[in-house]
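Archive entry. Fields below.
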Amino acid sequence: MGLFDAMSIAGSGLTVHRKWLDAVSDNLSNINTVKPTSEEAFRQRYVVAQAVDYGSGRGGATVAGVIFGNAEGRLVHEPGHPLADEGGYVRYPDIDMSSQMTQLIMAQRGYQANIAVVERAQSAYQAALQLGRGGS
Amino acid sequence: MSIGPVNFISPVTGVSPVSTGLAPAEKVSLGAGAGFGSMLADHLGSVRNAQAATDTAAVQAATGDLGDVHDYMIKSAQSGIMTELTVAVRNKAVEAFSEIMRMQV
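PREDICTED_STRUCTURE:
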């Protein structure tokens, strides 16, 4: 472990939570994106977080990848819609707004927790610098 | 009662040197001055690298390429602490040096 590992590890955690926030924002902004039945619906984005060098090395987290959700979507009967097919159906994305709002809160709290770690680590290092200041 | 005269004490002929177990003339390789100087040089190198990384992140933030705001703030906090540490080390070294110079011969 090196000098500033606490801050770097918290920084990687901040990146993961920021990407989670981006994914939730993407899902929420496309929650009413309508597609015709001939195409696949807007697929929900899931961010896959992974631990870095678990137990042996630097520590922290990284985003291993993004998984896309259900392509089927919800078939909604809207005959007046310009994109509707002969039966009057269009595809809405299969995204639950309440679960997305919950994830939004979790991502924000995770981000705040990592920021608290960075601040505490910084004040700890500053306190260590004050050690030799008083006496000679 | 009578006290006998003081006899002449035979002089000390030779004292065998105390064997300490150390090999003779084994110089300690790391003198105080050389070790401290190289440590300071390494430290300054890493401080320079940290400041270069901070400057790169600052340029990215100005042009809008910066992906993460916290990245720049963490890097600038790290380079600030490292600079303060270097200054503290230098102050201590100068203080010790002047303490020695003040010694009355």
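CURATOR_NOTE: Chain B has two helices and no strands.
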